Amino acid sequence: MELKDKTLIITGASSGIGAAAALLFAAEGANVVLGARRQAELQTLTGKINQSGGGAACLAGDVTEESYSEALVALATEEFGGLDGAFNNAGMMGDIGPVEQMDAANWNAVITANLTGAFFSAKAQIPALRAGGGGALVFTGSFVGFSNGGMPGMGAYAASKAGLIGLVQSLASDLAAEGIRANALLPGGTKTAMAGDDPDTHSFIAGLHPMKRMAAPVEIAQAALFLLSDRSSFVTGGPVAVDGGIAARLV
């Protein structure tokens, strides 16, 4: 088992990539602490993992509130004795459109969810990782934060994800000597609720990728598993593309 006896926080865990990660990580031996805003979905997923012999706990809340990140770390410590890593996956797309037509409320909401939320998560998690002698942090970014490639209307989202890459690289540099690694996943188009359910939209997104398809959530979760496992022990500071080749095409 790749994650045996590790305790990991997963945010954005009620659906999509986060839910796929919760099931995958638990199957690979991890204790998982699940966070998201939707309590019912979290409780259902937690029950499914525990009933199958895994270890899971959950707490509903909002990553834009600093106290919530602190509470997730406290839950990990209380339930499982510490923290070994986190998959900070929560985020939002926000409204898509030209910057000159974007209202400040949308800008602030996207930056707060995707960047400030990541800051709060890291701030709360680092002391717990340090107390345990090290660990790993993985954040869900996006290819548009690395190589926008002319994708229209992505100003707020791309800015938030580009900022996330900068935060992750700073964390990696600051924490490497303490045995704490930090990486950002850059998914391509993935079949989640954020991508909607319109077949024409899915076809358009799939066509942007050299592989001519979108990712399944578990494919992104598998990359996160690698970055949280000991198999990636010399990997830190990276924007790690899991995008079906789209960033290479758009450079």
TrEMBL record:
Keywords, ordered alphabetically: Oxidoreductase
GO biological process: fatty acid biosynthetic process
Pfam families given in the database record: adh_short_C2
Domain Ketoreductase: 6-202
Gene3D superfamilies recorded: NAD(P)-binding Rossmann-like Domain
Similarity-based family: Belongs to the short-chain dehydrogenases/reductases (SDR) family.
Protein's UniProt name: Dehydrogenase with variable specificity
